[in-house]
Structure to design on (527 residues):
């Protein structure tokens, strides 16, 4: 059993040991271990990929949100503007209508005043006429001597007249 | 201070241990009246295989020496005498004949009744020697470790949770073999060869490491061991070859016809020299490491043979060097396992690889 001459017994035992070990380890160690390591690696790769995907989705969602927000802001501004316009229009319309109404009322009032005035004047005319007739009657009934007397009498009469 | 004291203490312990050992080492010398220390024989004795685990020997003046050994089973087959199985203790360390066999040195030979060698009887020795037993022990440990880890992976540990304990020690090695040995060489076919390469790596590594235990057998530094691995490599390489590979060997492309005939024997020899280099490399590296450590230890005995004082004085120096080499040997245990596995992967890739890749990167 010298150093450089291979020993048959050890050779055979090593050969058997290696082959048995290879078969046993392949079945009970390498297959499950390598499968687990591979699964873990694919799992990590998938997680990273999905994280990247979620990140992209988030970014897209954010963009969409911002666009939506901008649109909403615009719409609000539009609505406010419309409301302001409507308000102005309503106020203006109301003003116009009020003016028209006021004018109409004024016109009607003026007409009424005119009517009243005319009625009053007519009545005054009638009364003056009646008074004149009455005074003339009285003057005529009294025989007046002098011109002075006549005038004082008329004055007295006129003083009696009270314009209502 | 504490460290210094520890150092001097350890040196003292080592020295005492070695002085005790020196007795046993010299006892191994045998019957010689003049007990002279022979470092060459001692070292080869330690490196070689044996039919027993020998721990130490206590000498008795005149009478029988006491050998503290663990006997191992001897299994012999000879076409003439058939199978015989008995414990190596039956030989009484080469002093007695058992069932017509005698232990001479480390070899078992068939003998005649009168004790002389019987050349007519052929003996095949399938004994469970020191190397075999230690290899089996190492492989059982390896198998238990790896199946234990596999079980952990199956239960989800290391998959859904962080790997723990031994998993953390072995996983990087497995990943190293997969990602730095198999994949760069074998590309798409790595999966197919991975169980073989992993087994090869761990087989060499565990035996290297067990071989470094004090008093253990030098398993990976045995030519039979490395030969098995080399022959298996050769078989795997040959089974991986394709027409392209053989075309390269028998009709080397790109050279004149005359050179083609010159290249043929060279290339054909290359097929066998590659695994042969693997065999010699592992054997020589591991044996050399053991020899260097043993040499440094032997220096103590060589010096102490001159004078006792020189031996004692040289002990710390010797131990320091031996420890230094020992640490390097641990490194070498990993490196040699890696080199053997990596070169096997390279040779397989040469066998399966069509070299279009290297010649034309745009292909």
């Amino acid at each position: 059993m010298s150093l450089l001459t291979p020993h048959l017994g050890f050779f055979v035992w090593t050969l058997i040991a290696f082959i048995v070990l290879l078969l046993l380890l392949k079945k009970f160690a390498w297959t499950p271990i390598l499968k687990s390591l591979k699964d873990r690696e694919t799992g990590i790769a998938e997680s990273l990929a999905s994280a990247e995907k979620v990140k992209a989705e988030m970014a897209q969602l954010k963009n969409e949100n911002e666009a939506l927000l901008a649109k909403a802001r615009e719409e609000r501004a539009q609505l406010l503007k419309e409301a302001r316009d409507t308000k102005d229009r309503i106020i203006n319309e109301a003003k116009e209508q009020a003016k028209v109404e006021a004018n109409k009322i004024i016109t009607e009032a003026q007409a009424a005043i005119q009517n009243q005035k005319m009625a009053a004047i007519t009545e005054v005319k009638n009364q003056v006429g009646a008074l004149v007739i009455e005074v003339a009657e009285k003057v005529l009934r009294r025989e007046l001597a002098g011109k002075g007397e006549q005038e004082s009498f008329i004055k007295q009469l006129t003083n009696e007249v009270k314009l209502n | 201070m504490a460290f210094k004291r520890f150092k001097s203490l350890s040196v003292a312990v080592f020295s005492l241990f070695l002085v005790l050992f020196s007795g046993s080492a010299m006892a191994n010398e045998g019957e010689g009246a003049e007990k002279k220390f022979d470092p060459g024989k001692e070292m080869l004795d330690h490196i070689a295989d044996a039919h027993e685990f020998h721990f130490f020997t206590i000498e008795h003046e005149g009478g029988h020496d006491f050998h503290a050994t663990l006997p191992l089973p001897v299994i012999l087959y000879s076409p003439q005498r058939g199978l015989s199985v008995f414990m190596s203790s039956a030989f009484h360390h080469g002093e007695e004949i058992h069932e017509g066999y005698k232990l001479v040195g480390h070899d078992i030979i068939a003998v005649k009744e009168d004790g002389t060698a019987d050349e007519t009887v052929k003996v095949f020795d399938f004994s469970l020697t020191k190397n075999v037993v230690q290899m089996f022990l190492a492989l059982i440990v390896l198998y238990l470790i790896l199946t234990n880890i596999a079980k952990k992976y199956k239960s989800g540990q290391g998959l859904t949770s962080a790997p723990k304990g031994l998993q953390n020690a072995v996983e990087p090695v497995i990943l190293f073999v997969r990602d730095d040995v198999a994949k760069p060489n074998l590309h798409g076919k790595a999966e197919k060869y991975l169980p073989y390469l992993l087994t090869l790596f761990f087989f060499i590594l565990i035996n290297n490491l067990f071989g470094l235990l004090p008093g253990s057998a030098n398993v990976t530094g045995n030519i039979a061991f490395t030969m098995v691995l080399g022959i298996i490599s050769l078989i795997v390489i040959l089974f991986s070859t394709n027409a392209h590979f053989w075309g390269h060997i028998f009709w080397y492309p790109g050279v004149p016809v005359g050179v083609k005939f010159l290249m043929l024997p060279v290339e054909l020899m290359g097929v066998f020299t590659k695994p042969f280099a693997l065999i010699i490399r592992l054997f020589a590296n591991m044996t050399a490491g053991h020899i260097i450590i043993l040499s440094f230890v032997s220096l103590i005995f060589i010096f102490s043979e001159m004078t006792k004082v020189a031996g004692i004085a040289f002990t710390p120096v010797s131990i320091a060097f031996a420890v230094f080499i020992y640490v390097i040997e641990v490194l070498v245990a990993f490196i040699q396992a890696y080199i053997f596995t990596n070169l096997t992967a390279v040779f397989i890739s040469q066998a399966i690889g069509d070299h279009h890749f290297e010649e034309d990167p745009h292909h």
Q: What stands out?
A: Residues 73-127 of chain B form one domain. The two ends of chain B are 67 Å apart (CA to CA). The longest strand of chain B covers residues 52-58. Chain B has two domains: 73-127, 130-359.
